[in-house]
Amino acid sequence: MSSETPDKLKILKSSPDLSAATYQIHDESHTIGNSLRWMLMKNPKVEFCGYSVPHPSENVINVRIQMYDNLSSLDALITALDDLDKLCETVEDQYLESLRAQEYETWDEKS
Amino acid sequence: MPTSTQTFNPRRLVGIHAERVTDVSSTDYPGHYPGEDHSWSLDKFRENLTVKVQRLSQRSIDFDIVGVDASIANAFRRIMIAEVPTVCIESVYVWDNTSVIVDEVLAHRIGLVPLNIDPSLIAMKSGPHDTPTDRNTIIFKIDITCSRNPSAPKGSTEPRELYINSELLSSHLVWAPAGEQDEVFAGKPPAPTNPNIVLAKLRPGQSISMELHAVKGVGKDHAKFSPVATASYRILPHIKIKQPIPPEHAEKFQKCFSPGVIKIDPRTKQVSVDEVNVRNDTVSREVLRHPEFADKVELSRVRDYFLFNVESEGPYTPERLLPEAIKVMREKLAVIKKSAEALRDRATDGDVVMAE
Lengths: 111, 356
What we know:
The complex is a heterodimer. Chain A is an alpha+beta fold.
């Protein structure tokens, strides 16, 4: 890959079957790191999951995933991304529903 | 008569003690409690989730998100601050500036002015050296000269009476439409959201002539692009009165909390927690400093009960900010998912590509 556009996702260290691997995600921070870590930890097949921002001046995060039963950590990662997306959709739907219901107080704020 | 407002599962509470907080981390993970299933389930999540808008004004919104982990609530907060795009002045071309403010300071001040441009109407430049076009750049011009006011009242010392154009205001930014922008922005011509921001002061003979290029950007690149003044959350305070408070101490007890949080029955002088107003408590822990109260009350916060307050500053109405943040989050997830799937396809072809 050219040095201008780095890969979004790289595998740093892994077992050959990908049952334990560290993924480096480019141009992401705690925002994705922590929520992805949480969703991966909700998966009972995940033995360990953690993330780090290796250095503040490097624009990357490292996500470590270790699986039980030699399952693929890459599959777990993709599932977690899917689940997070559905979570976001659910929160948005409920928010918009609450907004439509108009059961909130409105007030006049001077600027 | 132990009273508390609502009862919450004790697992959801973060303990607030005189000198420490306890049970800070959530425990709802698979494997934490033997025999309990805490794996991800969208249906269970949907059942437990409550999102409710509480207050709304033209500039700010208060809403509750109940039943999500801190990592999710924090992601929304972080995205609202740093990754929801807005349009701001990024390049300033100075033709003339004889004011007392130097070019770079004035340029910086102009950059911070919030604009009313809907970011969805323009494209993000791919880099600082990308060619400006009518799709990604909006141009403003400033041409202002200060002069004496011939009809100034005698003896006046007010600069705004003595001189014409004694101040450069944000309302002096004149939009110069290019290409198809005339039609695209017909409904709402680009301008600063607040016309009264003083950018520089001028005296007779001084003039400023500039061309300003506004582009789309995000708050993580420069704080001027942040669409919010503040985006923050607190977690819901919870007060449990374990033993009755003697009537003679009722008022003193009430004063340990924020106004409105503790109710006193006018007849029996019995204290209770106001279910609606608990959220306003600051959890100052003042009550724990008094030995007569310390054992009679339990302070905590509900770990997954987030009270958001978001103040909009810029083009978005306050109620649009959370949906925009969620949109950005889902775009990020989609990008990562795409590369993860590409990686999986390559891996199944037999070549696991490991960097380094």
